[in-house]
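Reopening this ticket.

The earlier resolution said the output was attached, but the attachment link was broken on my side. Pasting everything inline this time so it's all in one place.
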Amino acid sequence: MRLRRHYRSLLLALCLCTLLLSPAAFAPRHAQASSSPITVSSRTYIVNFPDSIDLSVSASDPIGMIVRASLDIDLSEENLPPELHGVPIGKVGHTISTTWRENTSGSNFVPPGSHVYYFWRFWDSAGNTLTDTPQQFATTDTRFQWLHLSQGLLEVNWYKRPLDFGRVMLAQASDSIKHISSVLGGGLIHPINLWIYETIDEFHGSLSPGAYEWVGGVAFPMLDEASIVAVGISNNTLVRDMPHELTHLIFHQLTGNRIDVPTWFDEGLAVYNQVYHEPDMSLRFQKALNTQTLLRLDDISSDFPANADQAYLAYAEGWNLVDYMYSTFGQPKMAHLIKDLGNTLTSVNEDFQQVLGVDELHLENQWRLHLHQPWVIPPDQLTPVPQAVTPVKQNATTVDTSSWLLLGLGVLLVVGAMSTLVVLVLFSVRRSRAAAARANTAHPASRQQQGNQAMAYPYPDPSTYMHASMYASPAPPSDVQNQEYPANPPRKQAPQE
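Inline output:
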């Protein structure tokens, strides 16, 4: 440790010497605030959510006339270059005030909680310039007067309702975080904000124009923000959407917002931690089992299908597979896996292999076999398990030819009796069919009713679930009770490969 510190000190000294001796160190810097006569007297911003952001500034220059101004602004969380805008200053003078309106409507939508970074630049008639000090702020949904309560790294925000409501929300969210943290093997690392809307319409007003009407909760892991709807303190969304979205925030903090984590695993964990599960999701999964139409994990690893029915099945699959993983490998190994996923030096498949002993493909194969579904790896490509073979001993015996004659006579008697029985059965069946035909002719409505007994699966229509940086969940039905998965086949030990 000491040797490393010694080399680090030498490297730092070398860098400082290089910087001091370089020609650029002696070049004039007109943009430095300390050498420019231009000064900024005020800066303000006003968020007009969701349509625009107004940024205003006032600057003065006792030596020259301020002739030009520009604004560098960054509203993206994806490390894109900032936008550069030339800002009209109106009348040239020693003192100017100007405002820039940043459009955030439509395709320029900026979610609540987004961090805005910006700085101003000015030029005067004497050739002086000023690059102002960088500024930053976080946007909010300014349509409402928000109230706030915090506990640890959690802040809960609500409006229109009393303080007691906020206390209940804070307590429930805190309990949910404790449970999720125990399941994932780690808790929050950075502060998060949970925004609670009173109605579904007001919540939808906080989403981008392209969001789907079924969305009942949303998380932005890059912003450490989540929003849900809570009509009351006993609403189902509090035990469904709240833990779902909080799971996304905690999981992404533990994995460092790693982008190549399989979507089925990310969403499966979120559904797994819900207290409430709508029965329709279980029905959809059971239908896929009955028809042997489970989606392949490769098809739901980077995103979920655009088809509503297939997207809903993807959520159900993720839930069932994560449940299988916790039951098969145990919570300690799952916590170890989630921790290792935070290390980007290894691939996701390598993390699965090192911690669970199987890669994603072999995990999928084991899970399917457990559900009595078709395998995805042919048996001849699995590692065979040696089986002990017991040789069959044959004793030499003397064959009596007379026994064969008696055996043949017995076979003839049995065949004759069976033939007589078959003739009688066929005669009985023909009589039964004739009677049924006469009955159907007399009662045609009854025959039609018997032919229309198809099973219906009335699950919701959630359409596309995933967006680039948005983790959404559909609003649950309000008229159904909590229900877990239908009874799965008895669990078996994972097959050896």
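Reporter confirms the inline version is readable. The chain has twelve helices and 15 strands. The chain has two domains: 39-138, 147-381+462-474.
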